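fold description:
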Amino acid sequence: MDEGLKKRLIGAAVLASFAVIFVPMLFEEPPSQPPPLPSLPAKPPESDFASEMLREEVAAVTPLAPREIQAEVDAGSGPVAVEPVKPRTGLTAWAVQVGSFSSQENAEKLVAKLREANLPTPDAELVDIKGKRYYRVKVGPVVERAEAEGMAARVSEIAGTRTQVQQYP
């Protein structure tokens, strides 16, 4: 086939493809408009949002007065007045520190041993001391220091370590 004829046929094919692509665009409808957006809500009133209730003063809570407890002695002696019980002013508790371990496995073994002895033992606490990680084992907390000191001797016997009573937390 002649080279000129090939070029003319290719040109005619290109023009025909352009016509197929672009002529329908001339006769189509313009793109439809997107639906209108709903109108914005009205602007809220310009007032502070402080509640009127917050402006009222709340009466201070008064602590309960100490009650007097009467202890009964032997039958026939009658009741004897004892010093009034003073309410606790701060929340204090006491815990027995059993030890600090670099090995989590050793700490967990001791926790299990103390729990078997029915002592209130939480999971070992992870602490950082001078950049090193330790697992601290404690027993408690209990409300009364005397109770914690009583537990300390039993804990020392079970754990085989020197214990220390500390304020909790």
About this structure: Strands lie at 70-72, 79-81, 93-101, 125-129, 132-142, 164-168. The longest strand covers residues 132-142. Helices lie at 3-27, 52-55, 104-116, 145-159. Residues 101 and 107 are 6 Å apart (CA to CA).
